[in-house]
Amino acid sequence: MSHSCSHHHHAPKNFHKAFGFGIALNILIVALEGGAGIFANSLSLLADAVHNLGDVLGLILAWAGYLLAQRKPSERYTFGFGRFSIFATVLNGLLLIGSSIWIIIEAVERWQNPALPATGIVAIVALAGIVINSGTAWALQKGQHDINIKGAFLHMIGDAALSGAVVVSALIMRFTGIAWIDPLLSAVLAVFILWSSWPLLVEGLRLAMDAVPGNINHLKVKEFILVQPAISDVNDLRIWAISTTSNAISAHITTKPGEQPENILRQLQHALKHEFGFNAVTLQLESDHSVCVSDH
């Protein structure tokens, strides 16, 4: 049995400044919206503040996951620490869903006893929220290939949209005096947050359970291997995520008689990395002389 391993490192775009920028600005907007929401008696503004607080925690988790994903493997953690980015994605989704449920409960209570908020303050603070969240989203938009960063990006886009809706509702209430618009908008925003965050949570849970990543088709990978001229069969094909940006594959390969096993495996290894973007490929030849080739 022979082993051959090579290492490929691609320096990721540095998102440390983007995360730090986003966290600092969102702490500011949470303070502004929370204080103004209490002062102006606006549930929609308070809901936006709570959601932004969830985003602050989410950004911190995403940043931690991003940092750990870049740490080198150790003797105990042989795949490195990238899996934390998956856990961060799951926690992010749970934070969004939890905050949405809280908003719906508060909206129902406020609907029973509607009160007109100070619409001028609400509109001004919500406008500031649009600017801050849009700026944070812009800083993160190039990292959407990583579902961990994509989750943070979607949070910011969602918050900017929510702040925009708060501005519109404040203007409508200012000119019509209809107080129930505030809890109604809060409930609508909460449903939107639930709808947008559910797929993120589901994909994070799938990856945590070592499911095939959503951007890879297991059947297509198997078909790709079987159409190679020197290969007759493939068994024990396993595909899983090492982190939110790195995927791994392992398989037992059976070659046709008369073929050179090591050359076949190296060529297939390269082809799988090129075609599907696998970061770790481990292939074992099923023959009289078993050969294992692994690349991380």
Characterization of this structure:
This protein has 296 residues and is α+β, with helices and mostly antiparallel strands. It has eight helices and four strands, in the order αααααααββαββ. The protein has two domains: 16-208, Cation efflux protein transmembrane domain (Alpha-lytic protease prodomain-like), CATH 1.20.1510; 218-295, 2-Layer Sandwich (Alpha-Beta Plaits), CATH 3.30.70. 63% of the residues lie in helices and 10% in strands. It has a four-stranded mixed sheet, with helices on one face. Helix 1 (16-40) runs antiparallel to helix 4 (119-140), helix 2 (43-69) runs antiparallel to helix 3 and helix 3 (83-112) runs antiparallel to helix 6 (181-208). It is elongated and about 85 Å long. The two termini are 18 Å apart.
Biggest sheet strand line-up: 1-2-3-4
Say what the CATH topology of the largest domain is. Alpha-lytic protease prodomain-like
Compressed to H and E, one letter per element, the order equals HHHHHHHEEHEE
| Cα Rg | 25 Å
Domains (count): 2
Structural class: alpha+beta
Summarize the biggest pleated sheet: 4 strands, mixed
What is the CATH domain class of the largest domain?
Mainly Alpha
Name given to the CATH homologous superfamily of the largest domain = Cation efflux protein transmembrane domain
| Low-pLDDT residue spans | 1-12
Mean pLDDT: 80
Helix content: 55-70%
- CATH architecture descriptor name of the largest domain: Up-down Bundle
* Molecular shape: elongated
Question: What is the straight-line distance between the termini?
Answer: 18 Å
- DSSP strand tally: 4
